[in-house]
Amino acid sequence: MPALRGLRDRIDPETYGGAYLLGVGGIAVIAHGNSSRVAVGNAVTVAARGVEHDIVGRMAQRLGAPASGTDLHAGGEVNTVPLVPEAENGEARI
Q1: CA–CA–CA angle 26, 8, 5 (5° rounding)
Q2: Cα(54)–Cα(61) distance, rounded to whole angstroms?
Q3: In this structure, are residues 68 and 60 in contact, taking their beta carbons and an 8 Å threshold?
Q4: Domain-wise residue ranges, the chain
Q5: Each residue of 7-53: pLDDT tens digit?
Q6: What is the three-class DSSP state of 19?
Q7: What is this structure's pTM?
Q8: Is 89 exposed, middle or buried, given 0-12, 13-18 or 19+ CB atoms closer than 10 A?
Q9: CB 45 within 8 Å of CB 67
């Protein structure tokens, strides 16, 4: 049915590929273990948009919480590990 096609596209898991995992102090997108290549690609796009739009900082601001990278208990910086290893020249190594 053409009338429901728009709704189907909006709720189809392949369209977004995953959803943000909240409470991790960074960007994490969770996808189903049986996701197709299209869904995984879309999940990466969702994560990239989250970074571009500073989703973590904006949510922290709206919730009145410190931005990611801060320790709520000690008030200092948290030791973080980059998700993508860097080469010696500082560029991402994939």
Answers
A1: 140
A2: 11
A3: yes
A4: 2-63
A5: 877 777 788 788 888 877 788 999 888 889 999 998 999 999 999 99
A6: strand
A7: 0.56
A8: exposed
A9: no
